[in-house]
């Protein structure tokens, strides 16, 4: 994405697009990271052909990493977080560091694929034995562009290996879990200049240097939250895509036992903020259904789903059975049968089941976020690809009993470029000022709730008796 940013201007243009699909090799699910790097080079070349670039920033998903040997070469394709190697590993870690003690340091919800569990699962492997550096995905790509090895803070906070209060790597946790602290790069804050695009990168992309690489909220959710067009503090956000990240923005972490039991994360954000949130399975459920239905027309399915009676079938959106890739329609039907419910009949009914269930999960997470943080909420901002899904936005407004402001769809890219632009002096101010620019320049849609609290309470009791 290429952007032009000024005090009253914020415009994005899609420069290039490339696929990002997992590759199964033997029993292991990998990322095709070299194809991603090639796509980035192609994208930089295309963006630079439109206009000179003043800076570059990278964000991506969290948790996954690449390992480098003593020469700086990559030791194999990074493993995908949906790979089965972490099955059962959390229990092994908690036998050494009890879950409550772990949470008191890292503040991260228990997800089976978090980096700490991936590294424990990889213990004893030849690759890990040969590794001298570990870089999370955006940091790895940044290293290839600049030759500089750094770890951006917002993404580092998702690994389970950061002390969330001290905002530093927790060498104590690393030592207790057998993880080599020497693998981890120095931390940088969003807005810091990491380095400049290397000469060979400039030559390959045709860019005129110098072009700095600026650390942004490199965890895509951190950038997406910068891209929330909020006008005050009493807001919640749902960064809605493959996952739904549901939470509030705070000034300090909440490390209570109640928060741990409710599976809330304290992930670090831009300008010293904390993203207090819970991961909900998200539109992955719908994406996998569409993969199982080649040629399906999503717009037509959503229109049909809107006519399906509410709550005809419901599932727990966070059921671990939905985590791996595979035949999602069949797994949804099986989940209904396990709970003694009639499975959805047909594709439109399956889509309605997914969206009703997601709205219920949003409702629960939002209620818990308010209760656990003490932060009251007046409005819910849905950003990311899910902002295009009018039915999901409307159902979320109804479920939460609050207005939903949908958009911007490209909140992650907008948050990314706003941090870059501020570092370059093109815009000024804190998060409130950056968000005011979003309000002035982006198209937003508001969904007012249609309250039916009794119906939503009854639906919730069916899923969580």
Placed side by side, the strands forming the largest sheet appear as 15-16-14-13-17-18-19
Oligomer: single chain
Coarse structural class: alpha+beta
Shape: globular
Please state roughly what percent of the residues sit in beta strands, choosing from under 5%, 5-15%, 15-25%, 25-35%, 35-45% or over 45%: 15-25%
Tally of alpha and pi helices: 19
Helix content: 40-55%
Q: How far apart are the termini?
A: 45 Å
Sheet of most strands: 7 strands, mixed
Model regions low in confidence, pLDDT < 50 over at least 5 residues: none
Give average pLDDT, whole number.
97
Count every beta strand, where a strand is a DSSP E run of 2 or more residues. Answer: 19
**Overall radius of gyration:** 22 Å
Describe it for me?
This protein is α+β, with helices and mostly antiparallel strands and 465 residues long. Helices cover 40% and strands 16% of the residues. It has helices spanning 33-50, 89-96, 99-106, 115-121, 126-130, 137-146, 153-156, 171-176, 199-205, 220-226, 257-261, 284-292, 298-305, 328-338, 347-373, 390-400, 411-424, 431-441, 453-463, and strands at 2-6, 9-13, 22-25, 28-31, 65-68, 133-136, 151-152, 162-163, 168-169, 187-188, 193-196, 212-214, 235-240, 244-250, 265-268, 274-280, 379-383, 404-406, 445-447. The strands form 7 sheets. The chain has a 7-stranded mixed beta sheet with strand order 15-16-14-13-17-18-19, sandwiched between helices. It has a two-stranded antiparallel ribbon with strand order 1-2. A two-stranded antiparallel sheet has the order 3-4. Strand 15 and strand 16 form a beta hairpin. The chain starts with a strand and ends with a helix. 47% of the residues are buried.
């Amino acid at each position: 994405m290429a952007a032009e940013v000024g005090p009253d201007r914020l415009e994005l243009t899609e420069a290039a697009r490339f696929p990002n699909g997992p590759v199964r090799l033997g029993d292991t699910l990998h990322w095709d990271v070299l194809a991603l790097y090639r796509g980035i080079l192609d994208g930089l070349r295309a963006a630079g052909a439109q206009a000179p670039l003043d800076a570059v920033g990278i964000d991506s998903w969290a948790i996954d990493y690449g390992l480098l040997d003593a020469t700086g070469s990559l030791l194999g394709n990074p493993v995908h977080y949906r790979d089965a190697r972490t099955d059962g590993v959390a229990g092994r870690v908690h036998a050494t560091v009890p879950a409550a003690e772990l949470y008191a340091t890292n503040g991260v919800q228990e997800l089976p694929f978090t980096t700490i569990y991936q590294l424990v699962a990889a213990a004893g492997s030849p690759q890990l034995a040969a590794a001298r550096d570990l870089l999370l995905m955006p940091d790895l790509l940044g290293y290839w562009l600049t030759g500089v090895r750094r770890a951006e803070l917002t993404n580092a906070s998702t690994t389970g290996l950061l002390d969330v209060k001290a905002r530093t790597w927790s060498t104590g946790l690393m030592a207790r879990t057998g993880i080599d602290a020497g693998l981890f790069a120095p931390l940088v804050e969003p807005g810091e200049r990491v380095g400049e695009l290397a000469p060979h990168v400039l030559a390959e992309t045709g860019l005129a240097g110098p072009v700095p690489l600026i650390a942004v909220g490199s965890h895509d959710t951190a950038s997406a939250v910068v891209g929330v067009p909020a006008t005050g503090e009493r807001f919640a956000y749902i960064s809605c895509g493959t996952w739904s990240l549901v939470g509030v923005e705070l000034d300090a972490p909440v490390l209570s036992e109640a928060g741990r039991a409710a599976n809330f994360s304290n992930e670090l954000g831009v300008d010293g903020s904390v993203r207090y949130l819970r991961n909900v399975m998200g539109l992955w459920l719908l994406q996998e259904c569409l993969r199982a239905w080649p040629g399906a027309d999503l717009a037509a399915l959503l229109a049909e789903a809107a006519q399906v009676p509410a709550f005809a079938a419901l599932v727990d959106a966070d059921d671990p059975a939905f985590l791996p890739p595979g035949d999602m329609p069949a797994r949804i039907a099986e989940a209904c049968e396990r709970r003694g419910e009639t499975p959805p009949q047909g594709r439109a009914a399956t889509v309605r089941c997914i969206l009703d269930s997601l709205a219920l999960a949003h409702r629960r997470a939002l209620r818990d976020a308010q209760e656990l943080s003490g932060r009251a909420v007046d409005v819910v901002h849905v950003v990311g690809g899910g902002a295009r899904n009018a039915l999901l936005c409307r159902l979320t407004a109804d479920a939460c009993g609050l207005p939903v402001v949908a958009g911007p769809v490209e909140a992650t890219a907008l948050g990314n470029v706003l941090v870059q632009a501020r570092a370059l002096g093109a815009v000024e101010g804190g998060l409130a000022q950056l968000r005011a620019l979003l309000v002035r320049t982006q198209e937003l849609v508001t969904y007012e709730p249609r309250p039916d609290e009794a119906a939503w309470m009854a639906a919730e009791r069916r899923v969580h008796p």
